[in-house]
Amino acid sequence: MEENKREFEWIDEWAKMTGERARIDAKANKTSIVYRSENGWVREHYDGTIETINSEENGGGKVREKERITRIMSLLQRIWEQQTDVRFNQLISNLQLMYSAQNEGYGQRMMKEKGPLGNEIKSFYLDFFYLEDDKWEEFLQKIVENQDV
Predict the structure, then answer these.
(1) 3-state SS of the chain: helix, strand, coil percent to 5?
(2) Of 122, 132, 124, 127, which Cα lies nearest the Cα of 45?
(3) Cα distances (Å, whole numbers) of residue 119 to 31, 111, 113, 124
């Protein structure tokens, strides 16, 4: 038993590093992380504040409302119908670029690539993994309202 404990001891350290990486990403992206603590489920915000999110209705975790899917998809449809020559992924990419530009470069990740001559080229890509749906919905709603004018 003692040998097995030492053999898999690295998992504890790996799990701790994963949590720290999530914390760093949350700070960089001005979002939060959710995890189970001794006091139940909590949300740790990028500024270090911790909020308990336990509730009896959802068994301890915060459940996103299902109706948001229909609202967001309806907004996307209204926007896309005004740009029928654009492919769906082009639409999403363009909207993400707009959101990023209007929100201090949100989601931009800098990268370096090797060019065709072996030279280093600086570039970026967008990562919207941590963007909460309510912020995206609000952004899309403003676009739709401006289209209707």
Answers:
(1) 50, 20, 35
(2) 132
(3) 35, 14, 8, 16
Residues 33-66 as b or e (16 or more Cβ within 10 Å = b): beeeeeeebbbbebeeeeeeeeeeeeeeeeeeee
Say how many C-beta atoms besides its own lie within 10 A of residue 12's C-beta.
9
Chain length of the chain: 149
Q: What is the pLDDT of residues 115-129, one digit of tens each?
A: 899 999 999 889 999
Which residues pair with residue 44 across a beta bridge? 33, 50
In SS3 terms, 48-111 reads as: CCEEECCCCCCCCCCCCCCHHHHHHHHHHHHHHHCCCCCCHHHHHHHHHHHHHHHCCCCCEEEE
Residue with tokens 């959710």: 34
Span 9-29, pLDDT tens digits: 777 777 777 878 888 888 888
pTM of the model as a whole: 0.58
User: Which structure tokens are listed for 66?
Assistant: 């299902």
